[in-house]
Amino acid sequence: MQTITPAEVKERLKNGEKLVIIDVREAEEVALGMIPGAKHIPLMQIPERLSEIPQNGETILVCRSGNRSGKALEYLQAQGFSNLKNMTGGMLEWDPS
After folding, report:
1. Which residues are catalytic, by number?
2. CA 67, CA 12: separation in Å to the nearest integer?
3. CB 87 within 8 A of CB 3
């Protein structure tokens, strides 16, 4: 499983990269804050919302701690998606400043 750290994501955003970030947390968690530009698709909705996830290019998956996003990554790989990365540590490690 490919991973990326919150610091790496933040640095790439700061450098102006346009990243595809999918936040798989629940609505009440997202209400507490989200990475700018991330798309919210709760984990349980991923199967019916596959068309919203790009097939080409890198996609970064995010949750609270990295556990659910890891499950999402495994599911998406099984559906034929590639170039997926799990953000280790999740939003617990994200520094909003």
Report:
1. 63
2. 22
3. yes
- Please name which of 14, 23, 17, 91 lies closest in space to residue 60, comparing C-alpha atoms: 23
Nearest to 41 by CA among 15, 69, 66: 69
Residue range 69-88, pLDDT digits in tens? 999 999 999 999 999 999 99
Q: How far apart are CA 31 and CA 47, in angstroms?
A: 23
- What's the pLDDT at 23? 98
Quick check: helix, strand or coil at residue 73? helix
Outline where 1-97 has alpha helix (H). 6-14, 27-30, 67-78
Amino acid in position 8: E
At residue 96, the pLDDT reads 82
CB neighbourhood size of 27 (10 A): 8
